[in-house]
């Protein structure tokens, strides 16, 4: 049943591309559209390119799902140990995604501390202090750059992690820490470091514009511990 659904989605995507090509022909034959601007042609070209990219993604998804089906069918046709192994594999994968497993890998380390420069006349002292928003923005930039696991002062960042100021300290996962705030991120070191050092990045602005103490270093191996707190969901329920 899953196989049929994925191929149906792919067919719809292909028909979408076909529909765009038909619309181009209709426009070119319409007396009211004898003069087609270059920008409109480019726009249609972009739409077709975008549709073709979506089709390619769907093709890859169909291939991936077909492989999953073969894997599941193979496990079902063999003994119980194969099914057990498959379930364990999926379980470990979910734990990894949820942050419930210790991980290691290459990445970068970002350290944040209050700035020590002299204040300008009338400047707010808060300008050279590290705030919760600063840490949050750095974390978000790392995620966008492809970080696969992140920790702050040893606390694993998961979907429910809070980052908030508590005076000169920051609280995360209900634990409070003082400076320096050390953010470990596992991912492609070059990509992560480039995201932090780019002239328009938040880390760059904190250091070069506001004068905060920001240190960035790549590492061949970073160890990040699993989330050790409790997960209490009051409102989220399993969907049907």
From TrEMBL:
Segments forming a coiled coil: 41-75
Pfam families: DUF881 (PF05949)
This protein's record includes keyword Zinc: no
Keywords: Coiled coil
Stated family: Belongs to the UPF0749 family.
PANTHER family: UPF0749 PROTEIN RV1825, UPF0749 PROTEIN YLXX
Protein name, per record: Division initiation protein
């Amino acid at each position: 049943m899953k196989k049929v659904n994925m191929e149906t989605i792919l067919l719809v995507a292909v028909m979408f591309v076909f529909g765009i090509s038909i619309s181009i022909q209709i426009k070119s034959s319409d007396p009211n559209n004898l003069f087609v601007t270059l920008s409109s042609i480019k726009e249609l070209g972009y739409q077709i390119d975008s549709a073709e990219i979506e089709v390619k993604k769907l093709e890859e998804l169909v291939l991936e799902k077909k492989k999953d089906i073969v894997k599941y069918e193979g496990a079902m046709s063999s003994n119980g140990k194969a099914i057990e192994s498959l379930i364990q594999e999926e379980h470990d994968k979910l734990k990894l995604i949820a942050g419930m497993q210790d991980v290691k890998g290459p990445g970068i380390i970002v350290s944040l501390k209050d700035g020590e420069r002299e204040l300008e006349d009338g400047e707010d002292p808060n300008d050279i202090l590290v705030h919760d928003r600063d840490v949050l923005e750095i974390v978000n930039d790392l995620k966008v750059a492809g970080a696969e696991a992140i920790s702050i002062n040893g606390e694993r960042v998961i979907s429910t992690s809070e980052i908030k100021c508590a005076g000169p300290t920051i609280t995360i996962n209900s634990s409070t820490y003082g400076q320096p705030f050390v953010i470990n991120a596992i991912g492609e070191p070059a990509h992560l470091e480039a995201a932090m050092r780019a002239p328009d990045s938040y880390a760059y602005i904190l250091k070069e514009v506001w004068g905060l103490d920001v240190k960035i270093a790549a590492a061949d191996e970073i160890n990040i511990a699993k989330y050790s707190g409790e997960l209490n969901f009051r409102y989220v329920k399993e969907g049907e």
